[in-house]
Amino acid sequence: HVIKDAGRITVTLDSGQTLPAKVIGADPRTDIAVLKIEADHPLPYVELGNSAKLEPGEWVIAIGNPFGLSETVTAGIVSAMGRNIGAGPYDQFIQVDAPINEGNSGGPLLTQDGKVVGMNTAILSPSGGSIGIGFAIPSDLIKNIAMDLEHSGHVTRGYIGVSTQSVSPAMAKALSLPNDTGALVAGVEPNTPAQHAGLQPGDVIRSLNGQPVKSPRELAVDVAGIHPGDTAHLGVLRDGHDQTVDLHVAQLPNDQQTAQNSSRGMEQQGRLGLALGPITPDVSGQLSLPDGTQGAVVTQVQPGSPADQAGIEAGDVIVGVGTHAVTDPRQAATAIRNAERGGDGAVALRIIHDGQSAFVAVNLNGNNANNG
């Protein structure tokens, strides 16, 4: 987020020298970017350590640029590991009580022997200042993401094509499950490894490659770490019986591929001027959608189109066309085309926008009006 939307990036060295920086790659899902600078002399550096060895109570040091005060050093202890703060689908932050403020983002979190075990990135604060709850991206995650970004400019993640939700105690009772751990399959996307392997809504994924799966987020993180093409062994509970499902993991589409798919979708939905994509676990996490939400996410809106004039934005989720619910992009596109052929010159869409449900009337002849 430090370099997002920047037109020009410069790096200032300790000597005061400034150098232009080039973005090699960025991964918004984990808030990690790799920059490259070229200097005419060797540069000192700090070594990445092993964040997996960190333990709560261990002393750490944070260095940053809070409020423009460069090279500010603060100290504290590791409060917790693997924190999920709702920033993305792959949250596993180090929580620290070392004072971290606005401007610390991107700075290192170091052990007492000078090894970088994290990158400071966020705080939890009702006041905007430090209250002793800060978060850093673990160095082990940084190593993996940076390696992919340096190699190809994007991150390669595993993908199986299921939408999952937590197993609440009430849900466990209703489905006669032994406990409330695991990831309940709410939907299976067509033409994905999950569908080809025969996974079904109602299945509960309880293990992955022999390791217990405690929650949907844990499943998403573990699947993302599997190399595309490798075989994953899922322990599944179906109708009260344990079974193993083997599948070949696919590659999660990167941002460039998603944009290309969106462009193709735009051509298909040219009259309305929007592109649709599936609600993947990744998308659901980013948009904080309720568990089990079905429909189609708007991935792109053509400027000046009827959809744009109606106020529809990328990230809105279409859950119905007219009075009929839709469960996926294909069904939504078909329903929209049928509504367009209705002859009244308008299409009513039921959407989720910023967490709120609303009906939006898209006037194909202009003069759009929103109805909430």
Structure description:
The chain is an alpha+beta fold. The protein is built from 8 helices and 25 strands. The strands form 6 sheets. Strands 19, 20, 21, 22, 23, 24 and 25 form a 7-stranded antiparallel beta sheet that branches. The chain has helices at 139-152, 169-174, 193-197, 216-224, 255-268, 281-287, 306-309, 329-340; strands spanning 10-12, 18-20, 22-27, 32-36, 59-64, 72-83, 93-96, 108-110, 116-123, 134-138, 158-159, 162-166, 183-188, 204-208, 211-212, 231-238, 241-248, 250-251, 274-277, 296-301, 317-321, 324-325, 346-353, 356-363, 369-371.
Secondary structure layout plus pairing:
Layout: E1 10-12, E2 18-20, E3 22-27, E4 32-36, E5 59-64, E6 72-83, E7 93-96, E8 108-110, E9 116-123, E10 134-138, H1 139-152, E11 158-159, E12 162-166, H2 169-174, E13 183-188, H3 193-197, E14 204-208, E15 211-212, H4 216-224, E16 231-238, E17 241-248, E18 250-251, H5 255-268, E19 274-277, H6 281-287, E20 296-301, H7 306-309, E21 317-321, E22 324-325, H8 329-340, E23 346-353, E24 356-363, E25 369-371
Taken from the alpha-carbon principal axes, the silhouette is globular
Indicate the percent of residues in helices.
10-25%
- Counting helices, strands and paired strands, the structural category is alpha+beta
Q: How can the largest sheet be summarized? A: 7 strands, antiparallel
What is the end-to-end distance?
32 Å
Task: List how many beta strands DSSP finds.
Answer: 25
> Strand share of the residues?
25-35%
What is the mean pLDDT?
83
